[in-house]
Design a protein that fits this description.
Two copies of one chain form a homodimer.
Chain A lengths: L2 H4 L1 H11 L7 H13 L1 H18 L1 E2 L6 E2 L16 E5 L2 H10 L5 E4 L18 H9 L4 E4 L5 H13 L6 E4 L15 H9 L2 E2 L1
Parallel strand pairs in A: 3-4, 3-5, 5-6
Antiparallel strand pairs in A: 1-2, 6-7
The complex binds zinc ion (2 copies).
The site of one zinc ion has 8 residues of chain A, from loops.
């Protein structure tokens, strides 16, 4: 591609890396790179700094599986959170979506995906053992399965349900406000809040 | 917003900065940030490095106005480029688009925008004086006005035409392959290459 000799390999590399982000193709990555370079002081410098900070500080919480700058994370160590309630999500993006909905004041457990035999994803690839362990050891009275209403999500929910059999814990799931096949992260906050409040027995 | 207490101000700041990039809204900025954090070694670390390099090395070429890691830029110093031909563009994105089309082997002059009295953008806000100076001093025999086919673009082209009166230089413009009202950066490379080859007398 002629572009590589146009502006030095450094810019080309920046564009290629930006193009790997979700939502940015090669064309929009070029525009984003150019915007950064033009607005060097307002955009490129602070972004480079923010990413440097992220590289140094951000990691995975060993308790719940979310990402944060502390381990355990701010949510796991927050004394104002209800310690008896655990919300199980597939992904950190879902945790963020639920927090934006601000519907409950519980703690979370991030599975890191769904069971998917076709893709070779089994229970050992997800944070399921640690979930069972938290339920067994902790003072958890309710586990809310806030898992996507997809086939794989529901397979995962049933598997967790089976694994929790024999442990003294009430398992609920989100109310049927969540559209079938829909992903939590794309829902508006009002729908999410309602689905949480009207959650039903699993 | 509840999100700021979820995962520390560092992540929130990263998301806010990403949301300022063209093509990314708040939601896609969150997804992009999360993707980076999850793929720390493959994405976040190299991106942070590439941006650090960009902060240190990338600047504006004082000769032609493009961005590069050297000043003068790689194009201005390339001895294989036709020294007698200058392509005038509004923006670095247009220069990149023309280079991708790989239709001519000339040098460039980046105006940095268009004349727009309504927005208070006059000739002194663009790299027009330096263009006239290059044409007066250099061995330029042809100036190709590769300016967007918009009202403001054409106003700018006519203004440049007037300023070049009395200087021994042939002024051409892109052929009418460029759609009226269209922006160069969104055109496919074949159309751009054809428009360049069939350029007409201004
Ligand atoms: Zn945690
Ligand atoms: Zn240059």
């Amino acid at each position: 591609m002629a572009n590589s000799k146009v502006a030095g390999p450094e810019i080309e590399r920046l564009i290629q890396l930006l193009a790997r982000l979700p939502g940015l193709g090669p064309r929009s990555a070029r525009r984003a790179a150019l915007q950064m370079i033009k607005k060097k002081e307002q955009l490129l410098v602070p972004l480079a700094e923010a990413m440097g900070v992220a590289v140094e500080k951000i990691g995975v919480c060993e308790t719940c599986g979310t990402v944060d700058t502390t381990n355990p994370c701010a949510i796991c160590t927050d004394p104002r959170r209800d310690q008896s309630m655990l919300i199980v999500v597939e992904d950190v993006a879902d945790l963020w979506a639920l927090e934006r909905a601000a519907a409950v004041n519980a703690r979370y457990h991030v599975l890191g995906g769904n069971l998917s035999p076709l893709d070779g994803i089994g229970p050992e690839d997800l944070n399921i053992d640690s979930l069972i362990e938290r339920c067994r050891l902790g003072d958890i009275s309710e586990v809310i399965l806030a898992i996507n209403a997809t086939v794989e999500g529901q397979t995962t929910a049933h598997y967790i349900m089976d694994r929790l059999a024999g442990i003294e814990v009430n398992v609920t799931r989100l109310a049927h406000g969540v559209p079938v096949g829909g992903e939590l992260d794309y829902l508006d906050e009002g729908t999410l809040a309602q689905a949480l409040k009207a959650r039903t027995q699993f």
